[in-house]
Amino acid sequence: MDILYLMIICSVSLAVIFLIMFIINAKKGQFEDDESPAVRILLDDELRDEKQEVDAEEQKTKKEKNK
């Protein structure tokens, strides 16, 4: 029966520690991410595609100027 009391005290203590860590990180702004990393990956692909199109157009204009 003593081990049950010990386990209850340990689990409640651990829960309190995690709660304190969560509150500290929430106040620091750790969880204020508007876009998740998965969405950012998709947006990065779109930006890269647009950049490649712009680079291709710049190369065409350079070739035309060299002619």
Automatic annotation (TrEMBL):
| Transmembrane segment boundaries | 6-24
Keyword Cell inner membrane present in the record's keywords: the answer is no
What's the protein name?
A: Cytochrome oxidase maturation protein, cbb3-type
Q: Which InterPro entries match?
A: Cyt_oxidase_maturation_cbb3
Please list the coiled coil stretches.
Answer: 40-67
Check the record and name the Pfam families matching this protein. Answer: FixS
**Record keywords:** Coiled coil, Membrane, Transmembrane, Transmembrane helix
Lineage, highest ranks first: Bacteria, Pseudomonadati, Bacteroidota, Flavobacteriia, Flavobacteriales
